[in-house]
Amino acid sequence: MVETSIFPADTDHVITTRQVNFFYGETQALFDITMDIPGRRVTAFIGPSGCGKSTFLRIFNRMNDTITGTRLEGEVRINGENIYENGSNVVRLRRKVGMVFQKSNPFPKSIFDNVAYGPRIHGTKDRQELAEIVEKSLIRSALWDEVKDRLDTNAIGLSGGQQQRLCIARALAVGPDILLMDEPASALDPKSTIRIEDLIGELRNDYTIVIVTHNMQQAARISDYTAFFYEGSLVEFNATKKIFTKPREKQTEDYITGRFG
Amino acid sequence: MRRQRSEQIIYLLIRLVMYSIVLVIGYILFDIIRNGLPALSWEFVSEYPRKSGAEGGILPAIVGTMSLLVGTIIVALPLGICSAIYLSEYAEQNRFTAMIRLAIITLAGVPSIVYGLFGLGLFVLFLNFGTSILAGSLTLACMILPTIIVSSEEALRAVPRGYRDASLALGATKWETIRTNVLPYSLSGIITGSILGIGRAAGETAPILLTVAAFYLPRLPNSIFDQVMALPYHLYILATQHPEADKVLPLQYATALVLLLLVLGLSLGAIIIRIHFRKKYRW
Amino acid sequence: MWKDKAMRLLMLSAASTSIFLVALIFIFLVKEAAPFALKPGLDALFDRQWIPVSFVQERYGILPLVTGSALVTGLSMLFTIPLSVLGAIYIAEIASPVEREILKPFIELLASIPSVVLGFFGLVVLAPLIKSLFGLGTGLSALTGALLLTLMAIPTVITLSEDAIMSVPRAYKDASRALGASDLQTIFQVIIPAALPGIIAAIMLGVGRVVGETMAVLMVTGNSALMTWSPLAPVRTMTATIAAEMGEVSFGSLHYQALFWIGLVLLAVTFLLNIIAQRVLVRYGMMK
After folding, report:
1. C181 and C43 share a domain?
2. Would you call C212 and B110 a contact, using CB atoms and an 8 Å cutoff?
3. Residue span of the structural domain in which C109 resides
4. What is the pLDDT of residues B133-185, one digit of tens each?
C-alpha cells in the first residue's frame, strides 16, 4: 500500500491478496485489490452497498465459486497458501475459514444437529465427542445457557438473535482459524446486535475476524482495522481509529461523515 | 345505479359458470359412486373374473395395475429425481440445459397414445420384451417422467439458498450439501408431485393398450415378461367390447369406482403428505 | 472429491435421458412408419377415405381422421374457452379466499379423473342424453366427444389462465380503479388484455391435450371414418383410430405403418402447439 506500514512490526498477516480482480461474467466487480489482513484482530470492511465488500469477503472461502460465470485474477493467500491454485482443496479451506451470513440460516433441524453438522460431515461419529463439541461451541457463542435444556428442539423456533449466535456456534464447531461475517447483525434488533458485538469482542483474541458492515458505528466499536471500499476498489485501509478520526482520502471522509452512501 | 345492476348480473353469470362446472364434476363423481357402490364387495376385489368378465371379480386387473405402477415407480422416480437435482443444483445457463428443458416440455406434450406407439416400437418389438409388464411399465415411466422432473425441480428450488451456502461454508461438498441439506427438505414436494404423476399412470389406458394389457386373463402374473389385465383397460373392454355390455353395467360401474378410488386415493395421500411435511419444515 | 464429481456425472446423465428419449420417440415412430413412404408412397395418406381392411382396395387416407380430430377439438374449444376463462376470472378475481381454497382442489380433482372413467360416464350417461335431446339414432357423436373433452381441457386451461391473471401486476388494477373504473371494467379492460398472452398459451396447451386425448373419444364418438363437419354425426379421430386398430393389425403391414404415420402427425401437431405456447409465455415474461 503506502509509505509506512499501518501495522505494528510483529503483525502476522493471515490473509494476503495481490492485485485481485473479480468478474461476474463480463462485469468487473473488484479492481486490483492488494491487502494484508492481520491475524487475531477484527478487520471491518465498510462502504456503500454494491461497493464489492461482500464479494471480496466471499473470496476468502471461495463462496463465489458457487455462482456460475465468476472469474478471479490475482493471488489470494491464506496462511501463505495460494487458495486459488489448481488442486487446492476447497473443503479443507472452508474448514479453516468459517462464515456467518447476513440472514441467519440455521438448518430446520434440532439445535444439536445444527452445531454437530460440520463435525459430522468431517467424519466425527462418536456421540460423546459430538456432544462435547456442541457444548463447547455453544458456550463460546454465548448461547449455551439459553438452549442447554432444549438441544433437541428445532432451531427455527429460536429468536433472530439466538439463531445468529447458533450460526456462529455452528461455524466454530468445525474449528476454524478465521471467521468471515457478512453483515451478521443487520437483520437484528439493537439488543441482539449488542450481544453479537460483545461476542465478537470475546472471540477476537482467538480468531481472525473479518466483518462486513454497513453500520459505521459498529465498525468503530468492534474493529481494530477498517477498510473502505468504493465501486469495487479499496480506497483506504488503516487502523480503525485513524480511519474514523483522520481519514487520508477525501472519499473516505465523505462517506464517514455521511455525505454520501 | 343502472350500471351497478348490470354489473351484478354479469357477476352472477360468471359465478353461475363456475358453479356449473363444479356441479358437473360433482355429478360425475356422484353417479359413479351411487351406481358403483352396490356392486362393490370384498368378493369383487378379491376374486377372479368368470365368463369373460360377466361374473366374478377383478383381482387380476387390480394386481396388474399395481404391478405396472411398481414398475413405473422403480424406473421413473430415480430418473426423474436425479434429473431434477441436475437442473436445480448443477445446471448452468447454457445451450445444453436449454436443450434438456425443451426436451422435457416436448415429452410433457406427447399424447399418451403416441407413447403407446413408441413403447410398441421400442420395448415390445425392438427390444423384444413382448407385450409384458416390463414393456408397459417402461412406457408409462417415459410418460410420467416430465411430471416428476418438473414437480421435483420446483420442490428443490423452494429450499432457501441460505441452507446450501451455510452447508458449503462449513466445508461440506456439493453432494453432501444436496444429500443432507437440500433433498430432505424438498422430499415432501418431490413425493407429492411423484404421486400425482403415478396417479396419472394408474388411470392411463392408451399406452398400455399397445404394450401390456390383456383382454381377459384370469390369473396372476409370474414374471415381468407376463401380460396382465389392468383396471382402466378392463373398464374399457367391459363397457365397449363386451357382448352383453348392458347386463354387466353394475360391474362396469364398480370397476370405474375402484379405479377412481385408487386414483383419488393417491391424490389424497399426496395432499396429506404435503400437509404433514409442511408442519415439520417451515422456513 | 471424486465422489462429488461422480454424483454430478450421474445427475447429468439422468437429465440427459430426456433429450435421448425425445430422439428415441421420433426415431422409432419414423422407423416403423418409413417403408410406407416408398410403397405405396405418401400420396396414399392424402386419400379421402380410410378403409384399411378391404377385399377390394385398401385405402389409407388420413384426411377423414384429421377432420374428425379437428371437428371434435374445435367443438370442444367452443365450450372450453368461455367456460375456462370465466372460471379463471372467477377464481382469480371474484371468489373469496375461502372459496378459492375449495374451488382450486376441486378443479384439480377433475384433472385426476382417468379419461377412461370419463369416457365410461359419457357412454352410459351423456350419450343417451344427447340421443334423446336431438332425436338421433345414436348418441355417439362428435358433440358427445367434444363435451367430454371439454371436461378434460377445463382443468388445464383454468389453472394456467388463472396463473396468467394472477401475474398481472397489482399496480394496473389500482391505476384503473383510481381512474374511477368499476371492478368489472377493470377486469375486462385492464386485467384480461394484460393476461391475454398467458391465456392464449393456456388455450393452446389445452388444444394439445384435447387433440392427443384417446380413450374418451374412442368410447363416445361413434368411430366412423367419414368426412363430415356435422357436430351430431359420428366421427373418428386420429387417436381413436390408433387405439382401436393397432390391436388387430399384423406388425409391419401397410396398415400398421399407416397407423404410425398418424402417430407422427399427432406428435408434430402437439409439438408445435407446445413450442408456440412456450414461446408466447417466454416472450411475454410469463414463464415461472
Report:
1. no
2. yes
3. 62-283
4. 999 999 999 999 999 999 999 999 999 999 999 999 999 999 999 999 999 99
Q: Which residues of B touch C271 (CB under 8 A)?
A: 106, 109-110
Residue B2 banded pLDDT, cuts 50, 70, 90: low
Burial label, A247 (beta-carbon count in 10 A; 0-12, 13-18, 19+): buried
- C57 is a domain residue: no
- Do C36 and C160 sit in the same domain of this protein? no
Res C2: pLDDT = 83
Radius of gyration of chain A (CA): 18
Residue C288 belongs to a domain: no
Domain with B224 in it: what CATH number? 1.10.3720.10
Q: Which residues pair with A20 in a beta bridge?
A: A33
List, as one string, the DSSP characters of C214-279: -HHHHHHSB--------TTS-B--HHHHHHHHGGGSPTTSHHHHHHHHHHHHHHHHHHHHHHHHHH
Q: Write out chain B residues lying below 8 Å of C127, CB-based.
A: none
Count of CB contacts below 8 A, A vs B? 68
* Residue C79 sits in the same domain as residue C197: yes
pLDDT of amino acid A223: 95
Which contacts of C247-255 are long-range, i.e. CB under 8 A and separated by 24 or more positions? C247/B209, C247/B210, C249/C52, C251/B125, C254/C36, C254/C40, C254/C58, C254/C60, C255/C52, C255/C53, C255/C58, C255/C60
Show the domain range for B27: 5-38
* pLDDT score recorded for residue B242: 79
Q: What secondary structure, in 3-state letters, does A156-208 show?
A: HHCCHHHHHHHHHHHHHCCCCCEEEEECCCCCCCHHHHHHHHHHHHHHCCCCE
Q: Which residues of chain C have pLDDT under 50?
A: none
Q: Which amino acid is at B248?
A: V
Same domain, B47 and B180: yes
pLDDT digits (tens, 9 = 90+) for C130-140: 999 998 888 89
pTM: predicted TM-score of the whole model, two decimal places? 0.89
Mark whether B54 and B109 lie in a shared domain.
yes
Does one domain contain both C67 and C18?
Answer: no
| C152 and C230 together in one domain | yes
Q: What is the mean pLDDT of each run of 10 residues along chain A (261 residues)?
A: 67 91 94 94 93 94 88 93 88 93 92 95 92 95 94 92 95 94 91 93 94 92 94 94 92 83 49
What ipTM did this prediction achieve? 0.91
Q: With contacts defined as CB-CB under 8 Å, which chain B residues touch A63?
A: 165, 168-169
Residues C140, C42, single domain; the answer is: no
Residue-level pLDDT at B222 = 85
Chains touching chain C through at least 3 C-beta pairs below 8 angstroms are B
